[in-house]
Amino acid sequence: MAASGQKAGILLMLPPPFTPTTFWVSVQRYYFAGTVYVLAATTYNGKTYVNTTIAADPEYLMMRRTASGSLESYFGNDGRNWTFLAYVGFGNAFTTHWAGVFSGNPGAGTPLTVNVDYVRFSFPGANTQVQVETRTGNATDTADPSWTPWSSPHANGLGSPVDRRGAYLQYRLLLSTSSLYVRPLVGDVNLSWEYRPPLGEVVTREFPLGKTLVWDVLALDANTHGGTIAVSYSLNGSAWTSVQPGGPNLTVAGGLRLRIRLSTPDPSISPSVTSTRVGLRPEPTPPILAPSPLPLWVLLVPLALFPAWLVVRRVLRGPFRATDLFLIHTDGRLVVHVGGRHILIRDEIAASGMFTLVARFVKDSFGGTGGAGGDLKSLQVDEREVAITKGEYLFLALVAQGPRPKHLDGAMADFLGAIEGAHRASLAAWDGLGESLGVLQGQLYWFLRKGHRHAHPALPRRYYPT
To answer: 7-104 adopts what CATH topology?
Structure first.
């Protein structure tokens, strides 16, 4: 602005049948005698009244209609923070206005050109709404009896399951608004669907059993959903043999694999298997025949020989020697294995799965008082013994040879409790990566080499195996 009388701002007026000179209000910048003012004015029945004038040169002007219908004028320098200027208006609330920007010079001076680079209209409380309803059928003619009724509006317009099956789907949009000036807009509608093959299968990796066992438990947590679920097994890579869930009562040895086949006549749904449980136990030993009656002195001979046998057995077995230590999640994942020169089972991941599977079988099969279930403490494989301790979310399995110390169970329980407490953040939600375990491997090495000899071992901060 360079000449007195130049002005520019926002103009709000009543539409026809009113004339433009009859009812209008404005908020404007006004130049006079070298000073820029911000001014609010009202024209009522052809007469103009200046509501407020103050010296200011703002970049932004705003006119706001309140909930009661009155008009307020504001100015500001950033378009976000506003200073109230004055109330303007005609005394009555109107629902319809014409709005625009203007510039000019009422005198014969220099004309004014204004560049308007930002205009925004907002309508608070418009309460626009878009709802989606669907229906499905098996024919292109929607009068076909296979078509379902229209659904209720889906709860989430940004993504909701249809939960209805059919060859065809139809949707309709319900648009609503409480404002005369704002209407809802829909850019596009996206539909997605799922199609499942009629047949699929899952095959497990091979489980090395190590010795002949009796397979007496096969349990599936499954839902056929109108399809079928078939289970078969293979031993040592042989042909697949069908087996029914329940109690197979089969004698198995070598490598065991399972195959689960799922089939469905309806591609929109699928059978599901949440979990599979397999129970194995050692073969029963032959019954011992009752001895014939013997003289009393013959019955006393074992009592005399038993202490000597214990001494000889301990000498022949040698001292207690720990060879391997496994730290296993209760879900069967191997966390860390240390040792290894005399590993009980060559595949350490299979070993961790075996310990977990046998422990769960003992808990499920040998219930304690009150139905709490039993816990597996140890198992014997040839000359080696595996001592097992279960914590809150971990198993600790120690493989050793020789006479077992009396304090070993307590030492393992104390050490496992210390491990779970010190590494809870990294182990409770372990992602399967060894890099996140920190000093845990060194602490396990310490327990394998030294710690198991202490009745109450304390957790070392760091230990480097030699």
So the answer is: Jelly Rolls (2.60.120)
